[in-house]
Amino acid sequence: MQREIPPLSVLCLRTASSSPSSTPLSSLLPSPAQRLYLKLSALPPPPYTPKSKQKDFQTPFITDTVTDTVPSLITSTNNNNNNNNNKSKQRLPSQTILGGNLSTTLLQTYIDCVSETGTLDDTRLTTDFFNILSSSYAVPDTNHDSSVNVKKRKKTELVLECALSFHNCALLSSSTFKCLISSDLSKIITCIDLSGCCGVTTDIFEEVVGGCKVLRRVSVKNCRRLGGLGGLKGGVECLDVGGCYNLKIEEVLSVVKSSKELNEFYGAGLGWEDEDFKELCGILGKRKCKGLSVGFSKGLSKECITDNLCTSKLLSHMESLSLHFLPSVNSSHLSKIGFLSPKLIEIDLRGCVNVTSVGPLLDARAVGYNERNMKGKGEQEVLEVIKIMCRYSGGEGVGKEVEEAYGKLYEIVRD
């Protein structure tokens, strides 16, 4: 029986404890689990996938296989084979992850245990730790195949990426991040999540983004000691600086402007004013913007939102839009947003006290969908499922209205 497992290319470190670790350094010597991991890390790496075949890559699954390289600690013997006297030479069946890597699985289990006990601090994550993790992503060299003529060889572009999350790891400081930068793992990290890391300062941020050369997605949400975004590369596609109230709007706009590939920006809680928001929309309107968040900005006027946000240039590719706790947003804005954003699948209207109905959003969305399909000569457009978050907005009738009046016409998820 096959059992699907989540992709093993993402390592997520989470901790809810803020108390320092009381574990003595003597206990940090290699434990049986760590020694087992070192044995497993010597197994062949997971198969790489050329970008041309990325769509055909199947989700890894666990299956029974026969191997003599996996330690007996994780193998299952056949109890019926008691007549075999030489069990030490027996090839034992084991559960193996096809398309994955056993060492990465064990590593994730180890991290989960350390995180949940609240002992994840700078003494745990060393340079060797990150180097061992990077070995799980090693790719065999296939460019020296003797059977292929040198002139006919084509350089295969490999998919070798890693996502790393330190979500809410409040105890981490410069020591851990320096170990990360000095390790081989920094060469393949394309996504890093530092949300809620209280120890992240401007200097640490500059070291991290400077040491990780191929970053495309960066989140420093609620890193309130962060005072600057220096060192951020131009190849970043997604940036989340929500809640970083020590950042200056001018510097944020400068980073957004210089990052030519940026098409997702989440900057709630920075206190946007009309002039700054106008400049932001002007920059993102020239790109295929997929995500935008400017919540908790009481200084935005109705006219500014109408003239700058509700435009086809900005909304034509929008998939996620967060306008939470903006008192200037009203139902008339929703009508324009619904008509101009055919790809919208999520909108956050929580705390928008002047939004008394989401009907204009849904009706305009349906009208725009019908008009585009009538004019279109090619493939018919598909109306995506939309998630509407409208808690604390415009009175108690909004959610009830969605369910009663529109629940039969649209598939809606209400939060």
UniProtKB/TrEMBL annotation:
<protein>
    <submittedName>
        <fullName>Uncharacterized protein</fullName>
    </submittedName>
</protein>
<feature type="region of interest" description="Disordered">
    <location>
        <begin position="72"/>
        <end position="93"/>
    </location>
</feature>
<dbReference type="InterPro" id="IPR032675">
    <property type="entry name" value="LRR_dom_sf"/>
</dbReference>
